[in-house]
Amino acid sequence: MTHASLSADLGPNQIANERLEFLGDAVLGAIVAKRVFDEFPQDDEGPLTQRKARLVSRKALNQIGESMGLGAFIRVKMGRSKIPATVIGNALEALIGAIYIDHGYRKTERAVLRMFERHQLSNGEFFATDFKSRVQEWAQQSAKSVEYSLLGESMVEGRNSYEMELLIGGQSMGKGVGSSKKGAEQAAAEAASRNIPL
Fold first, then answer.
1. Which CATH superfamily is domain 4-118 in?
2. Catalytic residue among 9, 18, 21, 25
3. Is 163 among the catalytic positions?
4. Global pTM?
5. pLDDT tens digits, the chain, 198 residues: what are they?
6. What pLDDT sits at residue 122?
7. Minimal CA–CA distance to 164: which of 155, 176, 173?
8. I need a labelling partner for 46 at 20 to 30 A (CA). Which of 141, 156, 167, 177 fits?
9. DSSP symbols for 7-61
């Protein structure tokens, strides 16, 4: 992988990473968008966009690239300075672009998902965070009861929509909406997770 700082030293048939970074960014975005779409059926466009943005953020890619040890494979001209994290994150995008060109979308998708699973983000989250299990575990440690209550059921644009409320120790801690009761419970648990120290 070649950083743009070496552009002046490259031969006529050699180029730096930028074009591959562009392609890799687009492919990565599609892979992550599909994954969060599948994993969070209760989410509308806004929450899905936020999840995708967090997973493909510069900070996340820098961290995954560093965890993979990509810095050792980057050709760069920076004297004795340490390679910046952003250069490593960009190289990860270039690597994804190269895998896509050589192997197509399906193999790239599998490779990307393995990257994320093996080199998880510092907050421990990957795609499908099971908020219900985390809330249940916290409640047990705190000797508090957990109860989900159905607040309402309706049809929205031809689809079922459920609203659930999560009660912890008899106190309302979060509400959520989903296309299934389980999805609404997961959304309520996610809302509750913002109010308790998981």
1. Ribonuclease III domain (1.10.1520.10)
2. 25
3. no
4. 0.59
5. 776 665 666 666 667 688 889 999 999 999 999 988 887 777 788 888 888 888 888 888 988 988 888 888 887 776 666 777 888 889 999 999 999 999 999 999 999 988 887 776 544 455 545 688 888 888 988 899 999 999 999 887 777 888 999 999 999 999 988 878 887 888 888 888 887 875
6. 40
7. 176
8. 167
9. GGG--TT---SHHHHHHHHHHHHHHHHHHHHHH-TT--HHHHHHHHHHHTSHHHH
Is 44 noted as a catalytic residue in this protein?
no
CATH number of 131-193: 3.30.160.20
Which among 21, 43, 93, 165 is annotated as catalytic?
Answer: 93
- Which amino acid, 136? Q
Tokens standing for 145? 């009861």
Domain boundaries, the chain: 4-118, 131-193
- Give the residues across from 154 on adjacent strands: 161
Distance, C-alpha 75 to centroid of its chain:
28
